[in-house]
Amino acid sequence: MDFTGKIVIITGASSGIGAATAKYLTGLGATCVLAARSEENLKSVQRECIAVGKVEPFLVVTDVTRREDCEKLLRLTIAKYGRVDVLVNNAGKGAGGSIEVADLEQFDDILNTNLRSVFTLTKLAVPHLIASRGNVVNVSSVAGTNSFPNALSYCVSKAALDQFTRCTALDLAPKGVRVNSVNPGK
């Protein structure tokens, strides 16, 4: 598969699935915009991408739970490249806790990171994705389709993310934008 010339935003790109996705797509010729909270970790991933790819990734320090950071991410990407072809909503976090243990602060924190941020960034990117007839990939989890004990907030956030993905896919398909999720497990 050739991603040469494709502009790809990847959130949560400083480690794990996000970093691996950045290296893989850079190796396929994509121009990646790497977003995460840790500039130091982003720079490390950037160096790894340069070793396997043709184009140096663009870094934008971003806390996806802050709307102004999401706006900055889109604004800087469009200013530098003029478009977005793929949005990979990968940033996320987990937390343990049953209904007896989890509190409202944990629930809000997990939902803000795993769901609300995806809504915010996707909403901001939609006009650009329609223009490029682009793609959205939401990184969910096996916890979105299966229930697990002691993981209430996380499971709820990922199940909601899967439903968000399906609804958004139906809304944007007539406009030529594909929206999918992946549900990795352990």
Automatic annotation (TrEMBL):
Pfam families: adh_short. One of its GO terms (molecular function) is oxidoreductase activity. Transmembrane segments: none annotated. It comes from the Eukaryota. Keywords: Oxidoreductase. PROSITE patterns: ADH_SHORT (PS00061). The keyword Oxidoreductase applies. InterPro entries: NAD(P)-bd_dom_sf, Sc_DH/Rdtase_CS, SDR_fam. Belongs to the short-chain dehydrogenases/reductases (SDR) family. This is Short-chain dehydrogenase.
